[in-house]
Design a protein that fits this description.
Blueprint: E1 6-7, E2 13-14, E3 21-24, E4 32-38, E5 48-56, H1 60-71, E6 78-80, E7 89-97, E8 114-122, E9 131-144, H2 147-160, E10 162-163, H3 176-186, H4 196-220, E11 233-235, E12 241-242, H5 249-257, E13 260-266, H6 276-285, H7 289-300, E14 306-309, E15 311-312, E16 315-323, E17 326-333, H8 339-343, E18 347-350
Parallel strand pairs: 3-18, 4-7
Antiparallel strand pairs: 1-2, 3-9, 4-9, 5-7, 5-8, 6-7, 9-17, 10-15, 11-12, 11-13, 13-14, 16-17
Length: 357
Amino acid sequence: MSPGVGSDAGGMPLAFGAPLLMARIRSAPEDFRVEEIDGFEASGEGEHLLLTIEKRGMNTGFVAGLVARWAGVAEHAVGYAGLKDRHAVTVQRFSVQLPGREAPDLALLEQDGLRVLAQARHRRKLPRGALAGNRFVLALRQLSGERAAIEARLAAIAARGVPNAFGEQRFGHGGGNVGKALAMFAQGARGKRMGREQRSMLLSAARSALFNRVLAARVADGSWERGLEGEVWALSGSRSVFGPEPWSEALQSRLDAGDIHPSGPLWGRGTLRSEGACRERELEALADDESLALRDGLERAGLEQERRALRIRPDDFAWRWEADDALVLSFALPPGSYATAVLQQLGRIIDAAGVPL
């Protein structure tokens, strides 16, 4: 492990040194506020109604069911861009298909913990992933730690970004989805013995676990933010990648500016795009028996090799102290990135269920 690199409770090495604080998150839903950043404007016409909903203590699937019952439609007629946790206050859009119909009275949908902030007509159902990112306001309470050191760590995060780890939400209760994915692969299941949604969830967990293992190795040697020979580069805020290509001052300038980031594999069929030292590091990190079983299962499931940025830089990163033991962070992240990736770089943070992030 590189000098200055610590390790957090979840196993992901800390990129900036040892843990600096202990704190609690989600003491109340208001301490974890998430607001989707819309990926498009409503067209103003069409058979779908877009609803911007603020919800407290309700997950996305539950609210989708409420919207369906309010509108008198099947749940598959309701769309949403991303899944949001129950233990939070969240603002996100839902679409509901109402061909040739006026919407029922919105007052019949609103209840304690749910209110409609805006509505607009649109031509298409809201698809998964159709958002520009998420904006977070997070309160850490019962915090202990040296303020000056915490301020320095926050400044480093603002300047350099954080490792782009998949959060614990991806892995299910107690991280059990990886084990379930291994069992699915061992049984040769191809969706016949489980629903499509469950199968997709387990495939995502397997892929995410492999990515996090590569990322942990790259954090440990410091290459998560500087790259290696044979690196594949990810464009910031995009799924596009390029390279490998010879090192140049132009690449260094773009890397320093946060325009590009090193990337890691989202495993699937085909040949790794990385080369040289980068490919060697990726294969070394995924050479244990469990990783090999996950790799084989993902390939047999038909997924193709893709890439994901190893680094993210939070936008509009800011913080303020509400009290000596209460720190509020605000920032925005691109789609698919997790607020826990930021929090884990600070220290040991416990959620409402008493579980470390």
